[in-house]
Amino acid sequence: MVSPGWIGVTGLPLLALTTSGMGSVLGAWAALFSNRRLWIINNTTLADLYELQSDIDFRKKDSADISTAEAKDFYERLKKIVREAEGALKSTYSG
């Protein structure tokens, strides 16, 4: 017959070990199988970069030189695209 003290001495540490192990497995599972979300982030970022490249190419077709303000605007758009992509990736991997 098992004494009631068995649960406190052996059962609780075993339960804690099992629970923490399952938490690690579930976290890894979510990170490994979030492919759809990562695909969406990748394609959205790529579309934004293509749009920026298209705008720069269109502007370069003009005979006038690109002004410093326009170059800064293009650079700010690039930084915004990168920030948004990094933020989306961080939120995907942090939970």
What does this structure look like?
The chain starts with a helix and ends with a helix. Helix 2 runs antiparallel to helix 3 (68-94). The mean pLDDT is 85. With 95 residues, the chain is mainly alpha-helical. The protein is built from 3 helices and no strands. The protein has 2 domains: 1-33; 34-95.
Detail the topology: elements first, then pairings.
Blueprint lengths: L4 H28 L2 H27 L6 H27 L1
Helix pairs in contact: 2-3
List how many beta strands DSSP finds: 0
> What is the distance, rounded to the nearest whole angstrom, between the alpha carbons of the first and last residues?
45 Å
Q: Overall 3D geometry?
A: rod-shaped
Please give the largest β-sheet.
none
Give the class from helix and strand content and strand pairing: mainly alpha
What is the mean predicted local confidence, pLDDT?
85
Poorly predicted residue ranges: none
Q: Give the total of domains.
A: 2
* H/E element order: HHH
Total count of helical runs of at least 4 residues: 3
Q: Evaluate the radius of gyration.
A: 26 Å
Proportion of residues in helical segments: over 70%
Q: Which percent range describes the beta-strand content?
A: under 5%
